[in-house]
Amino acid sequence: QVPRALSQPLASSESRRFTNKHSKKALKASLTLGILLGMFFVAWLPFFVTNVAQAVCGCVPAGFFDVLTWLGYCNSTMNPIIYPLFMRDFKRAMGKFLPCCRHSAEPRPSAISLSMRNSNSGPRAATSLKNVL
Question: Start and end of every G-protein coupled receptors family 1 profile domain (predicted)?
Fold first, then answer.
């Protein structure tokens, strides 16, 4: 039998490492969410308050209302900037689809290698179109 006193510190250090790893991820996720929500409220809250004030008293100039509307639109342009800054998974996914974001170290597979990989056969001798038809 293994005494509990010897096996317990190992288990607690593993659980501590597991907890630290997940708490860092949770902290980063909550920070990203806080930034996104904070920017949303800063951008759209003035618009909605002004919209209610306009409905009640009609005292908001049209130019000011337009500026607040465009401030809200600017929030939509900030989201594609914020996500890659704070989320590594988002960066990786976008790097796979956008050629401008692809790293030069990652070779793009050719269509031939993809078809060979998807077929169950090994490498074949070169065949012409006449031989196939």
Answer: 1-83
Mean pLDDT over residues 74-101, rounded?
79
Phi and psi based region of residue 109 (left: phi greater than 0; alpha: psi -120 to 50; beta: remaining): beta
Residue 65, in any domain of the structure:
yes
- Residue 53 CA to residue 59 CA, distance in Å, equals 7
Within-domain flag for 68: yes
Alpha-carbon gap, residue 81 to 90, rounded angstroms: 11
Burial category of 63 from C-beta neighbours within 10 Å (exposed 0-12, middle 13-18, buried 19 and up): exposed
Q: Return the pLDDT at 86.
A: 76
Global pTM value? 0.52
What is the reported pLDDT for 27? 86
**Distance in angstroms (rounded) separating the CA atoms of residues 88 and 101:** 13
Domain limits for position 47: 15-97
Report, as an integer, the average pLDDT of 12-36. Answer: 78
Tally of CB atoms within 10 A around 68: 20
Q: Tell me how many domains the chain contains.
A: 1
Spatial separation of the C-alpha atoms in residues 76 and 43, rounded to whole Å: 9
Residue 91 lies in a domain: yes
